[in-house]
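Figure 2 data, in text form.
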Amino acid sequence: MTEGEMTERRSGNAVRAQRREDRRRIGSWLTAVAVVLTLLQLFALPLLLLPREPAWGWALLPLALLTTTFWSVIHEAVHRPIGITDR
């Protein structure tokens, strides 16, 4: 094996490790955002804001409509998306 091939192999491993770390970081951020939005949807809006001003109920509409889609995106961020390779 030549020195160039060894360098390429080492740099390829570094790129793969960085991609894994990036996916992990994105998955963590998406999960944190989802948890905050869920807490807002389940507790803050109904218990704190809606009794004071019923118009806050409209804020629940986009949260309810996007919940399943958002968790699907989180699922894909946590797992390796199909078709993506570590080349």
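Caption note: The radius of gyration is 21 Å.
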